[in-house]
Specification:
Elements (H helix, E strand, L loop, with lengths): L4 E7 L4 E9 L5 H14 L11 H9 L8 E6 L2 E10 L10 E8 L8 H15 L4 E7 L3 H9 L3 E12 L2 E11 L1
Parallel strand pairs: 5-6
Antiparallel strand pairs: 1-2, 2-3, 3-4, 4-5, 6-8, 7-8
Length: 182
């Protein structure tokens, strides 16, 4: 376990500074991780899932992650998980891509737009480098302008576009691949 890291996040909407603790996720955090993920699903702009998921459905995903290679981190404020992020294998099982990870970051409703992502993304980049990754990618829906701006702010570049490959609520959506060499 990497341990606890304290970081300050400036909440633009309130003009105050709040302390947020970033730590590795434990299995007891899975319920809140799923809750935040389901909030993202409900936005219809964040992920390609069209139905909410259960804790049981995400348990194998959670157990596939390990602190020594594919960590999941949570950000807490006053013992409430306000965001989570992870590094997941890119093209799992293919040795040629073992130094490439896929980055995910999800922020709880009510905490979006307050600077949490600006703290989490650099943290994830530092951790990925420490874990020996050479490249991180992030795959986002084209119309997710908030995530795209966040990634670009932290040096990710658009490396690819898969146009019109998905459909959410009858609307055709595209996937944008972002990448960053560490």
């Amino acid at each position: 376990m990497i341990g606890y890291i304290m970081t300050s996040v400036r909440c633009r909407s309130k003009g105050t500074t709040m302390k947020v603790t970033i730590r590795e996720a434990g299995e007891s955090d899975l319920k809140e991780i799923v809750e935040i993920f389901n909030q993202a699903i409900r936005t219809r702009t964040s992920v390609g899932y069209t139905s909410e998921v259960t804790v049981e459905e995400r348990t194998d995903w959670f157990l596939d992650h390990s602190s020594d290679r594919y960590p999941i981190y949570v950000a807490e404020h006053n013992h409430e998980i306000v965001a989570w992020m992870s590094i997941t294998p890119y093209r799992k099982g293919r040795a040629a891509f073992q130094k490439t990870g896929e980055a995910d970051c999800f922020v709880r409703e009510g905490w979006r737009g307050k600077g949490i992502g600006n703290e989490l993304v650099p943290y994830l980049l530092r951790q990925a480098k420490k874990l020996g990754f050479r490249t991180l990618i992030a795959i986002v829906l084209e119309h997710n302008s908030a995530s795209r701006s966040l990634l670009e702010k932290h040096g990710f570049q658009q490396w690819g576009l898969l146009p019109g490959i998905g459909e959410i609520d009858g609307k055709i959506v595209s996937h944008v691949y972002y990448g960053k060499t560490l």
